[in-house]
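Example 3.2
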Amino acid sequence: MEKKRIGWKVILAAAILAALFLPGITKFTQLKARQVRLNSGIERLKAGEVDLRNEQEKLQKDPTYIEKVAREKLQVVNKGETIVRVEKKNGR
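Structure, written as tokens:
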């Protein structure tokens, strides 16, 4: 009879401990997953920053790159040049 009482006490103690610690463990797991997502976002932003800094440096120092960007994005042309646009027909 005494073994049954000890068994029930152990089960009851385990249930109480689980009820006390399970919400905290769940929250911890959620926060760790969020931290991983945020760290991934930070790394992606850092890589983007490096790309932007490289672009900025080229735009400040590389005349050939400046001309390329001006032609492509701003549609700038040199004297005597003409812009020719070719449009595709839909479905072909």
